[in-house]
Each structure stands twice: as C-alpha cells, then as structure tokens.
Amino acid sequence: MPKYSGDVIARAPRLHPSAWEKEQKMNWEAFAALGEVSGALAVVASLVFVGYQLRQGQSIERAKAQRDLLEQGREWMAIPGREEQNFEAIRSCLRETMMAPTISTRPGSTAGRGACS
After folding, report:
1. pLDDT tens digits, residue range 45-85?
2. In a domain, 44, yes or no
3. Of 4, 69, 82, 97, which is the most buried if we count CB atoms within 10 A?
4. Is the pTM of this model over 0.90?
C-alpha cells in the first residue's frame, strides 16, 4: 500500500467540521421537504382516485336499479301469457271497464267496480 506524503494530504480539500455539519443538515432538510411534497401529492392523488371510484360506484348502482326495474316490468307484462286463468281474468276486467257506462271518481265509491276490484 503506497504511502502518501504529508503535502498530498494537506492539499486535499477539506471542509471545516462546522461547514460539513451544515451541509449534512441541509441535505436532510432537503430530503424532508421532498418527502413532504411527495406525501402531499400522494394524498391529492388518492383523493382524486376515491372520487373517481365513488362516481363509478354510483353509476353502477344506477344501472343495476334500472335493470331491476326493467326486469320487473318485463315479468309483469308476461303474467297474462303464463296461465289461461290470468289471461281470462285480465280480459274480463278490461271488458267490464270498457263497457261500464260511468265510473265515479269519488274515493270509496263502488260505482263501476266489477270483476276488476
């Protein structure tokens, strides 16, 4: 291992201990500031993502409700065709309603009621 002469070591740039400590402290402060900024950006990004997820969840629930409503309507419309008895009951009810001379609009009135009631 080669030995260095004293003047080579003396010519090497050296920082004063207090300057070196200041430089190290500044580096840690810079890292801390960078960490705070990146943390704030992460919080903002997560809030945007949560908002997007909420909006998407609402649209999915709205679509499910609409699909359920359409399915219920389709089932209701299919009732007369399932059984002959249901078809005849609805047909006679409609026939009586169309043939009724007058229909009272008073609540509790029995006029105009027949097989449909």
Report:
1. 999 999 999 999 999 999 999 999 999 988 888 877 787 88
2. yes
3. 97
4. no
